[in-house]
């Protein structure tokens, strides 16, 4: 990748904007765009504003202005959703209360803004799947402030291909429904921060490491960020059009003074470095035995500022992250607790998925332990739970919605042998399956009548033939009916015109050879018309 002068592209863009604003077609298109309602799509870290978003924003602002949560209250709230991580919950609860209490005091006494204050920006360390992101999402939800999450690896230094770190602040405004006042109290969470540690032996300029750290440093301290990206042509054109029309210019920037920054990463190699340092200070057989029982992640609790600097972080950057906490690796007992005792468990998500088809299931304690045991082998923390459950329920989700099954039990055998257990569930419900398939035939008949005004009647023999065809070809009744009676309405309408009937009996012969039988019926209808 070649280095470019960041000034030239911006000057070229400004010239293009000025030329575009002289084009009547561009102005007309921009006017339509600005008057159109906002798109109802999801933004990273949040959703499009609901109809009453303005009232909701005012309530959140009032909650911030009157912030009165205590650290224990935040800790207790987190306990409902996140298993283990007691030290992280305690540290985060205190940091959040300190931060938002300071925000409240600055609102009450604006003179405090001018005083020096070290923000409680946070760095979270620990392996994947232990709840780092989930902790911050839960806190942001409790307080109600806008929350934006991004991976550090997607950013590059200004002037290179990639995302600008200032886009994070603009995303806060989007998540805050365009409310700059609300967005200025938001939380920005940057994951995989360990991936942008610059190596000491790197040759030339470090595009994705040191430069990104320096740019983030500006944001974490205090700076004004333009609400319009220099590379966002549409936003720049809208701003210029507002000025040219003499309209009232909205706020053009947002200050990062009260935006809280949290960064996180696995830092496994950092844990290894801390382990070597700790081992060099220990003497004796017992200490070596203890070290063997610990993983690299266990040593992250002993990390020091010098360790971060040696790892590749700028002293100024790591100095702006005064709150440091290491999350613990999850054991099997923790995974069991996540499945059975935490709100928002992944099992609840699967129950909701099956509930969409009016299907319920129960999980035995032995099955939960087997899920946790298999998830431990994935070595991805709580994320391993979904990996295991997806493998188990993959075919259940595919097969059961089209069957008569409305409830089933998940046992340890289900986890160990999901296909065999699924076949058993299907076999045990064969007696009720025929009624389900008969209902599918009736539903097709209703849809056919609604679309074409013609009534189809299926006797038992015909239903048996359709069910047999669906079973043999491994297709749904709907697919079989649509395939056999494709464009059937055209012939039936001719027959209806000739015989003055709108009701037709579908026989087994028609199911076995629909085109031949339909042709015969059409010919007979013309004969009947001639005879009358």
What does this molecule look like?
It is a single chain. The chain folds into 4 domains: 55 residues, no CATH class; 172 residues, Rossmann fold; 97 residues, Helicase, Ruva Protein, domain 3 (Orthogonal Bundle); 100 residues, no CATH class. It starts with 6 loop residues before the first helix and ends with a helix. Helix 15 crosses helix 17, helix 16 runs parallel beside helix 18 and helix 22 crosses helix 23. By secondary structure, it is α/β, with parallel strands linked by helices. A 5-stranded parallel beta sheet has the order 2-3-6-1-7, with helices on both faces. Strands 4-5 form a two-stranded antiparallel sheet. The longest helix is centred in the first third of the chain and has 23 residues. Helices cover 57% and strands 9% of the residues.
Could you name the key traits of this structure?
Rossmann fold; alpha/beta; two-stranded antiparallel sheet; 5-stranded parallel beta sheet; Helicase, Ruva Protein, domain 3; 9% strand; elongated; 26 helices; disordered N terminus
Mean pLDDT: 83
Give the proportion of residues in helices: 55-70%
CATH superfamily of the largest domain: P-loop containing nucleotide triphosphate hydrolases
Low-pLDDT segments, ≥5 res: 1-7, 33-51, 200-207
Largest sheet: 5 strands, parallel
Strand element count = 11
Under CATH, the topology of the largest domain can be stated as Rossmann fold
Overall geometry comes to elongated
**Proper CATH architecture of the largest domain:** 3-Layer(aba) Sandwich
Task: Tell me the distance between the termini.
Answer: 85 Å
Can you tell me the number of structural domains?
Answer: 4
* Rg for CA atoms: 32 Å
Structural class by sheet pairing and helices: alpha/beta
Beta content comes to: 5-15%
**Order of strands, widest sheet:** 2-3-6-1-7
CATH class of the largest domain: Alpha Beta
Q: Treating each run of at least 4 consecutive H or I residues as one helix, how many helices?
A: 26
């Amino acid at each position: 990748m070649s280095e470019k002068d960041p000034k030239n592209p911006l000057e070229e863009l400004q010239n293009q904007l000025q030329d575009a604003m002289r084009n009547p077609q561009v102005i007309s298109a921009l006017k339509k765009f600005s008057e159109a309602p906002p798109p109802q799509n999801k933004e990273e870290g949040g959703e499009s504003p609901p109809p009453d978003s303005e009232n909701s924003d005012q309530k959140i602002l009032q909650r911030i202005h009157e912030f009165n949560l205590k650290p224990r209250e935040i800790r207790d709230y987190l306990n409902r959703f996140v298993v283990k991580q007691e030290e992280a919950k305690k540290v985060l609860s205190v940091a959040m209360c300190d931060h938002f209490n300071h925000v409240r005091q600055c609102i009450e006494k604006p003179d405090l803004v001018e005083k020096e204050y070290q923000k409680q920006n946070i760095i979270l360390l620990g392996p994947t799947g232990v709840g780092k992101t989930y902790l911050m999402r839960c806190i942001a939800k409790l307080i109600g402030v806008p929350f934006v999450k991004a991976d550090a690896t997607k950013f590059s230094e200004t002037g290179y291909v990639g995302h600008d770190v200032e886009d994070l602040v603009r995303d806060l405004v989007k998540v805050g429904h365009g409310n700059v006042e609300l967005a200025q109290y938001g939380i920005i969470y940057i994951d995989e921060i360990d991936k942008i540690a610059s190596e000491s032996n790197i040759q030339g300029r470090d595009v994705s490491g040191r430069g990104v750290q320096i740019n983030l440093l500006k944001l974490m301290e205090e700076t004004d960020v333009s609400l319009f990206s220099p590379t966002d042509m549409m936003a720049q054109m809208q701003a210029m059009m507002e000025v040219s029309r003499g309209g009232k210019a909205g706020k053009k920037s947002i200050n990062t003074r009260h935006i809280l920054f949290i960064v996180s990463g696995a830092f496994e190699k950092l844990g290894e470095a801390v382990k070597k340092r700790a081992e060099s200070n220990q003497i004796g057989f017992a200490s070596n035995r203890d070290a063997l029982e610990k993983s690299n992640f266990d040593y992250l609790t002993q990390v020091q500022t010098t360790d971060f600097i040696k790892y590749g972080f700028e002293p100024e950057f790591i100095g702006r992250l005064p709150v440091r906490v290491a999350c613990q690796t999850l054991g099997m007992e923790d995974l069991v607790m996540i499945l059975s005792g935490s709100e928002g468990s992944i099992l609840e998500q699967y129950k909701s998925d099956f509930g969409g088809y009016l299907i319920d299931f129960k999980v035995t304690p032995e099955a939960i332990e087997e899920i946790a045991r298999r998830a431990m082998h994935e070595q991805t923390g709580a994320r391993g739970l979904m990996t295991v459950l997806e493998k188990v329920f993959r075919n259940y989700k595919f097969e059961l919605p089209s069957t008569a099954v409305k409830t089933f039990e998940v046992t340890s055998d289900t986890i160990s042998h999901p296909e065999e257990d699924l076949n058993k569930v299907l076999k045990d419900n064969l007696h009720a399956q025929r009624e389900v398939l008969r209902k599918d035939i009736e539903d097709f008949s209703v849809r056919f009548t609604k679309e074409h005004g013609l009534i189809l009647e299926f006797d038992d023999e015909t239903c048996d033939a359709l069910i047999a065809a669906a079973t043999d070809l491994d297709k749904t009744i709907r697919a079989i009916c649509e395939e056999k009676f494709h464009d059937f309405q055209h012939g039936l309408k001719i027959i209806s015109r000739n015989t003055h009937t709108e009701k037709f009996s579908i026989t087994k012969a028609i199911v076995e050879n629909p085109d031949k039988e339909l042709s015969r019926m059409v010919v007979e209808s013309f004969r009947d018309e001639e005879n009358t």
